[in-house]
Write a structure and sequence with these properties.
binds calcium ion, single chain, binds alpha-D-glucopyranose
C-alpha cells in the first residue's frame, strides 16, 4: 500500500494541539481492568462498561496497553496481528463501541504501537522460518548464521533483556535475534515492507478514531548488526550519550518517527504520540521533539526516591528538556513494568540502591523482607501524585494507583505470567502490579468480573475496592478526583518558580500565586501562609505534617 496522506490537509511538521501538553492520561492494562463475560480476563466491553468511572476521575485520555491477538508470552507485547483485537478481549466492533463511549465522555484514546518486534506466531515470522536461509521472507527479521560447522552456536554472546541469549535457533543453522522473549523476534527496520506495514497500522487505528499512540521500545528499532560484533561485555551498559550503541537509541531511529509525524499530522486534529524510550536523559528530548514523536515519558520520576533532592533534580531536568525542545514531558509514578509507587515508597530508603531495585529484591522474598510499611507508602504516594499534578507537562496514572494499591508480592510461582519471572532468577517479574482491580469488597474477583481473575487477588484488596473508596471522603480515590478537578483550574501555563525552602521541603509556585509545598522531613513544619486548596493528608496539627503535600494560594 502506498502513501495515502491527504496533502491538502498536511499541516507543517509540528505538533499543533495543546491538550496533550498538559493531558492527564489514565493507563489501562485491559486484561486486568474489567471482565464483562466471566472468563477471568479483562476485555474491551469491560472497559466500555466502566467509562463512567474513568470519567469520574477527570482524566483527559486513556492509554490502553496491547489488546491485539497474542499468545500472551509477554502480556500482549507479543503481537500476532497489529490490526486486530484478541478474540478473548473482543472484536473490532467492540473496539469501535469503546471509542464511541470514550469520546462521548470527552476522553481521548491512546493505543500502543509495538514496532520493534512481532510475536513468533505472526504470519511473517511463520513464513520466514519456513522459507529457509537466504529467502526474502527472512529479511523482515534479523536472521544470522550461527557459529560452528553446522551453525549450532548463536552468532554472538548478546543477551536478551529478559535474561539468557538474545538469539534463538531457526533449526537450520541460522538464528534469529530477540531483544525480549524468544516469542518476540525483532523486526528488521531496514526492510521497506516493515516500514510500510507500520504506516498502515498507524493509519488503521487513526482512521478508527484513535487520538494518539504510545510507541513501545521507541529507542530500539534501528540496529547496527554488522560484523565484527562487539562482545556483550562492551555493550551491556545500554545507555550511551552519543548514539553509538549498536542496539539502542541510534540517531537514525528518528527518520522513522519523522515519517510517522507526517502521517500523524495529516489528521485533524493531529495524532499525538509518546515515546517509551529508556535512553540517557540527555537524549530524551530528541524523542519529544515536535519533528519526532512529540512527547516522551520522563522515566526519571520512576527512579526518584522519596527525597526532596531527588524530586528537585528530576523536576529541573524534566523542565529543561521541555524548554530545550519546545515540547512537553510526561511524568509518571508507576506503569505496568514497575513495582507500584505506594510499595516503593513504603520500603526502607537505601543509600546505594534506588527504591525500584529495593522493591524488586523485596519481591524475590515474596514481600517478606524488608518490612513494607503500607501506611507510609500510601501516604507518600498521595503526596507524590500531588507534586506531579502540580507540574507543567502531562501526567500518566497507572490503573490502581488512584486506589493507593500496593504491589502483590506473594503470587505463587505457578500463576506468574511474566516471561521475566521464568527466565531470570534475579526477577520475580511484573505480575504483582498487573493483578485485576478490586471494584467491590466482595465477589469472586472483587467485582472485576462475575467469576475469578486471571491472577489471584489477595484478601487485602477488599479494603482498597473502588466502591469502598467512593464512600470515604478521605480515600486516595477521592483525593485523586479532587486533585484532578483542581488541577484543571489552577495550573495553567508552563512556568514554574522555585521558592526557597529548607532542604527537606519542596516548594514551587505556578502562575496566580498557587504553591505546591511538600514536607519530606520527619518532623512537621509550619504551614506556609495562604489558603489551603488541597492537602494529601489531614492538617490537624496546624502545621504541615511529614510526608504531606499541600496546594495553597498565597496572599
Ligand atoms: C515495553 C513494555 C513492556 C514489554 C516490552 C517488550 O517495555 O512496556 O511491558 O515487555 O516493551 O515489548
Ligand atoms: Ca473477559
Amino acid at each position: 500500500m502506498t502513501s495515502t496522506i491527504d496533502h491538502d490537509h498536511l499541516v507543517d511538521a509540528k505538533v499543533t494541539t495543546d491538550l496533550w501538553r498538559t493531558a492527564v492520561v489514565y493507563q489501562i492494562y485491559p486484561r486486568s481492568f474489567a471482565d464483562s463475560n466471566g472468563d477471568g480476563i479483562g476485555d474491551l466491553p469491560g472497559i466500555t462498561s466502566r467509562v463512567p468511572y474513568v470519567r469520574s476521575l477527570g482524566v483527559d485520555a486513556v492509554w490502553l496497553t496491547p489488546f491485539y491477538p497474542s499468545a500472551l508470552a509477554d502480556g500482549g507485547y507479543d503481537v500476532d496481528d497489529h490490526r486486530d483485537v484478541d478474540p478473548r478481549l473482543g472484536t473490532l466492533d467492540d473496539f469501535d463501541a469503546m471509542v464511541r463511549a470514550l469520546h462521548g465522555a470527552d476522553i481521548n484514546l491512546i493505543v500502543d504501537i509495538v514496532p520493534n518486534h512481532t510475536s513468533n506466531r505472526h504470519p511473517w515470522f511463520v513464513q520466514g522460518l519456513a522459507a529457509g536461509r537466504g529467502a526474502p521472507e527472512r529479511d523482515r527479521y534479523l536472521f544470522r548464521d550461527g557459529l560452528g560447522p553446522g551453525g549450532e552456536r548463536p552468532p554472538n554472546d548478546w543477551e536478551s533483556l529478559f535474561g539468557g541469549s538474545a538469539w534463538a535457533p531457526a533449526g537450520d543453522g541460522q538464528w534469529y535475534f530477540h531483544c525480549f522473549a524468544a516469542e518476540q523476534p525483532d523486526l528488521n527496520w531496514e526492510n521497506e515492507e516493515v516500514r510500510e506495514d507500520f504506516r498502515r497500522t498507524v493509519r488503521f487505528w487513526a482512521d478508527r478514531g484513535v487520538d494518539g499512540f504510545r510507541i513501545d521500545v521507541a529507542h530500539g528499532l534501528r540496529k547496527d548488526m554488522s560484523e565484527p560484533y562487539p562482545p556483550w561485555g562492551e555493550i551491556a551498559d545500554l545507555m550511551r550519550e552519543d548514539g553509538s550503541h549498536p542496539l539502542w537509541d541510534r540517531d537514525d531511529v528518528h527518520e522513522i518517527y519523522a515519517d510517522w509525524r507526517r502521517i500523524f499530522n495529516s489528521y485533524d486534529p493531529p495524532r499525538y504520540a509518546v515515546a517509551e524510550a529508556a535512553v540517557h536523559p540527555a537524549r530524551r528530548a530528541r524523542y519529544a521533539s515536535t519533528e519526532s514523536l512529540g512527547n516522551a515519558f520522563n522515566f526519571d520520576t520512576l527512579d526518584a526516591d522519596w527525597r526532596a533532592d531527588d524530586y528537585r533534580r528530576v523536576i529541573n531536568r524534566g523542565l529543561a528538556d521541555m524548554i530545550n525542545n519546545g515540547s512537553t514531558t510526561s511524568w509518571l509514578l508507576s506503569c505496568h513494568d514497575t513495582p507500584r509507587v505506594a510499595t516503593r515508597y513504603g520500603l526502607p530508603l537505601e543509600k546505594d540502591r534506588i527504591a525500584q531495585q529495593v522493591a524488586r529484591e523485596w519481591l524475590l522474598t515474596d514481600g517478606v523482607t524488608p518490612r513494607l510499611d503500607r501506611a507510609v507508602g500510601e501516604r507518600r504516594a498521595r503526596a507524590a501524585i500531588m507534586i506531579l499534578l502540580a507540574l507543567p507537562g502531562s501526567t500518566y496514572i497507572y490503573q490502581g494507583d488512584e486506589l493507593g494499591l500496593h504491589e502483590v508480592a506473594d503470587l505463587p510461582p505457578e500463576v506468574l505470567e511474566d516471561p521475566m519471572a521464568g527466565r531470570s532468577t534475579k526477577e520475580k517479574g511484573r505480575d504483582g502490579c498487573r493483578v485485576p482491580l478490586p471494584w467491590t469488597p466482595d465477589g469472586r474477583s472483587y467485582g472485576f468480573g462475575v467469576e475469578g481473575a486471571h491472577l489471584p487477588q489477595p484478601d487485602w484488596f477488599a479494603s482498597y475496592a473502588i466502591s469502598v473508596q467512593e464512600a470515604d471522603p478521605n480515600s486516595t480515590l477521592n483525593l485523586y478526583r479532587r486533585a484532578l478537578d483542581l488541577r484543571s483550574q489552577l495550573f495553567v501555563g508552563s512556568g514554574l518558580g522555585w521558592v526557597e525552602s529548607e532542604s527537606q521541603v519542596l516548594c514551587f509556585e505556578r502562575g496566580g500565586g498557587v504553591r505546591c509545598v511538600t514536607n519530606f522531613g520527619s518532623e512537621p513544619i509550619a504551614l506556609p501562609s495562604g489558603d489551603v486548596l488541597l492537602a494529601s493528608a489531614a492538617l490537624d496539627t496546624g502545621g504541615l505534617p511529614t510526608d504531606t503535600t499541600v496546594w495553597l494560594r498565597t496572599p
